[in-house]
């Protein structure tokens, strides 16, 4: 499994999509350079308290896939539901790296950053 993405998705993805995921993986390696941050994330994650999401009043885009092996889908939906005007984009598959949805995700990001642009 690469970056919490089901391996069968990567195996059937186009060479371009595989190259994008490979580049993501190469950019996070070596993990040893991020070890302190990962330990901190783990420690903080064990003692999370609800965040005041309702106080966020900025354009917000939240993207997740149901088969993300980090299990982000439900929390992404929840987070989007708690932020006024947030947009949630969910996919049934794509893993943590949204394999097969690059164009859709990039279009959503462009619209978030420049609302006058429409696909």
Features:
2 strands; 119 residues; Rossmann fold; mainly alpha; two-stranded parallel ribbon
What would your notes on this structure say?
With 119 residues, this protein is mainly alpha-helical. It is built from 5 helices and 2 strands, in the order αααβαβα. The chain has a single domain (7-113), classed as 3-Layer(aba) Sandwich (Rossmann fold), CATH 3.40.50.1820. 45% of the residues lie in helices and 8% in strands. The mean pLDDT is 87.
Helix/strand/pairing category: mainly alpha
CATH architecture assignment name: 3-Layer(aba) Sandwich
Mean pLDDT: 87
Spatial strand sequence of the major β-sheet: 1-2
How many distinct beta strands?
2
Report on the biggest sheet.
Answer: 2 strands, parallel
List segments where confidence is low: pLDDT < 50 over at least 5 consecutive residues: none
Q: Share of helix among residues?
A: 40-55%
Give the overall form: globular
Report strand %: 5-15%
CATH topology term: Rossmann fold
Q: Count up the helices.
A: 5
What is the helix/strand order? HHHEHEH
What is the CA-CA span between the terminal residues?
A: 33 Å
Gyration radius from CA atoms, angstroms: 16 Å
SSE topology sketch:
Elements lengths: L6 H6 L2 H14 L6 H11 L15 E5 L7 H10 L4 E5 L10 H12 L6
Parallel strand pairs: 1-2
In short:
The protein is built from five helices and two strands.
